[in-house]
Amino acid sequence: MTTTVVNGVNVQALLDAREVLKTSPEAAQFVWRASSTWRKGVHSTTTIEKFFGLGAEQTHQAASVFEADHPAVFAADDNGITPIEYLLVGLASCLTAGVASVAQNRGIQLRSVESTVEGNHDIRGILGADSDVRNGFNDVKVTFSIDADASKAEIEALVAQSQKRSAVFDALTNPTSVTVEVA
């Protein structure tokens, strides 16, 4: 008897795309964009709508708008999460999506996947209170709780493969060239 795994991931489309991009690497060059507008204080609104990929300009089905601010304990209005918390959102989302994709590809039925991401941050750096303290996270911890038709070893392998293929994990754990310009 064959069991159909339904995790909502079209693995065949992903595998087909991988094969096409092996022979057309220029189509794999994507440019993701975010446009941010200052509102007041330390509040900004960032919109994501268009990107470049597969050799042409692309548009998401709908624009996504993100509010960023600082909490009241930082003497701000708390109109959104802090910018550094968006890194946690990106990491949690990328790793969780990766687990679903890998599980689908390996024929593992998921019942639930939850991830908790915590970043330890000494804010003396960003406040200029101690020049020896870095501005970013000191460390980040990701904890998964996964209920699936799989052994603990198979679940650990899902998470390991998700981590291996995660663009956000890679960007956070490896140096990335960032250029800042004024127009």
Describe this structure in words.
The chain is of the alpha+beta class and about 180 residues long. It is about 30% helix and about 30% strand. The chain has helices at about 10-25, 85-105, 150-165, 165-175, and strands at about 30, 35-40, 45-55, 55-70, 110-120, 140-150. It is globular and about 55 Å long. The protein starts with 10 loop residues before the first helix and ends in a 10-residue tail after the last helix. The mean pLDDT is about 95.
Q: Unreliable stretches, pLDDT < 50, 5 or more residues?
A: none
Mean pLDDT: 93
The best one-word shape is globular
Largest sheet: 4 strands, antiparallel
Helices and strands: which structural class? alpha+beta
Q: Tally the helices.
A: 4
Task: Give a short overview.
The chain is an alpha+beta fold. The chain contains four helices and six strands.
Keywords:
single chain, 183 residues, alpha+beta, 4 helices
Furnish the topology, listing elements before pairings.
Layout: H1 11-23, E1 31-32, E2 35-40, E3 43-53, E4 56-68, H2 83-106, E5 110-120, E6 139-148, H3 152-165, H4 167-173
Antiparallel strand pairs: 1-3, 2-3, 3-4, 5-6
Helix pairs in contact: 2-3, 2-4
